[in-house]
Amino acid sequence: MAGDILKVIMMGPPGSGKGTQAELIKNHLGLPHISTGEIFRENIRKNTQLGQRAGKYIEKGQLVPDELTCEMLFDRIEDEDCKEGYILDGFPRTIEQAERLDKYLTERGHKIDKVLNMSIPDQEVIRRLSGRRVCSNCEEIYHIDDNPPAKEGLCNVCGSSVIQRKDDLPEIIKARLDTYYEISQPLISYYNRSGLVTIVDGTIGKTNVTRFILSLFG
Ligand code: AMP
Questions:
Q1: What's the domain count of the chain?
Q2: Which atom of ligand 1 is nearest to the CA of 90?
Q3: Is the CB of 129 under 6 A from ligand 1?
Q4: What's the gap between Cα 90 and its chain centre?
Q5: Residue 117 located in a structural domain
Q6: Using CA atoms, how far apart are residues 91 and 42, in angstroms rounded to an integer?
Q7: What is the domain range of residue 12?
């Protein structure tokens, strides 16, 4: 029984900075950043069976079914690098996933320690996502106005092409936001019942957000 490993959940609408902040805090906390969206995209790039199954939903801005998502996530958190804990980004996204995660953790004598709810207005979500570009290889994130790559269209880190995610196109952004409010936002109340949620103002600038989050961990 080890109840002392640190498990953090990053929540919030798409584009609220969950992934960016998870990347920034992971080294400070010494924990891996686990993004279910990124694992799906990697599988789509490699054209695996999982990628083919998940891709149909992702390209429409819909959620991948709980069964498939949970199986993949539980498999990932069994890995050696998760022994001291992990930062979950984009999981859970449904009450069903949260309940399954609780059950999985309880069976192992573990529990969630912190839920960070990144809060930003819809208009800012739309501005960020429609201008977002990502490296097609390493998923480094750019923005056409806020943070363009040094050489147009090429990743600063690995030199691969920088592209727009298909699900960052306007109609799909709208679908993802609708899904968030309808299905994922109720999770805040779910975790609030156990007093786990801290609201993080996602509009105060990347560095200030990181500083605030790290202050919560002492
Ligand atoms: P993200 O990179 O977190 O924005 O995720 C991209 C897409 O992957 C989402 O719009 C969903 O289609 C799918 N996805 C990621 N995480 C989950 C999850 N926990 N449950 C269901 N679908 C997910």
A1: 1
A2: 3
A3: no
A4: 3
A5: yes
A6: 16
A7: 2-32+79-121+177-216
Give the Å distance between the CA of 5 and the centre of ligand 1. 25
CB 80 within 8 A of CB 32: no
Q: Is residue 27 a part of any domain in this protein?
A: yes
Q: Identify whether 172 is part of a domain.
A: no
The CATH number of whichever domain residue 186 belongs to comes to 3.40.50.300
Other residues' Cβ atoms within 10 Å of the Cβ of residue 16: 25
Ligand 1 neighbourhood includes 40 CB (under 6 angstroms): yes
Structure tokens given for 196: 């786990």
Catalytic residue among 41, 100, 133, 176: 176
Q: pLDDT (tens digit, 0 to 9) for every residue of the chain, 218 residues total?
A: 344 689 999 999 999 999 999 999 999 999 999 999 999 999 999 999 999 999 999 999 899 999 999 999 999 999 999 999 999 999 999 999 999 999 999 999 999 999 999 999 999 999 999 999 999 999 899 999 999 999 999 999 999 999 999 999 999 999 999 999 999 999 999 999 999 999 999 999 999 999 999 999 98
Q: Could you tell me if the CB of 90 is within 6 A of ligand 1?
A: yes
Read off the amino acid at residue 51.
Answer: G
Residue 41 lies in a domain: no
